[in-house]
Amino acid sequence: MSISIKTNSINEEVLPVTQKELKDLINGEYSKTQDINKTIDSTLKFLSIKSSKFKYIINVTELQSAGAADTKVGSSFGSLWDEKNDGLISVSLTIDADINKILMFTVIFINI
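Predicted structure:
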């Protein structure tokens, strides 16, 4: 299983975690449970303990293309928020390279 950051966060210096902390957290939690919902729940719990100054939204997109060489999935995100205080981090977790199974976690941080 490999993990990489696919996009940079917006204003990472104001966010309660770094990209590396989030990457390590998601990788560790998913490795323990192999369950997307449990990984989301434990990540949200960690983030809420880390800082109560934000609301958190986590979206996970699962990509799997066993043998289909032309599988494509696109995802876009738009926001109208305070660019100085809000942000997001997207993390891609490759679960099984043989069947091209990838989980893409997007964590959105909204300062309250």
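Summary: The chain has a mean pLDDT of 82.
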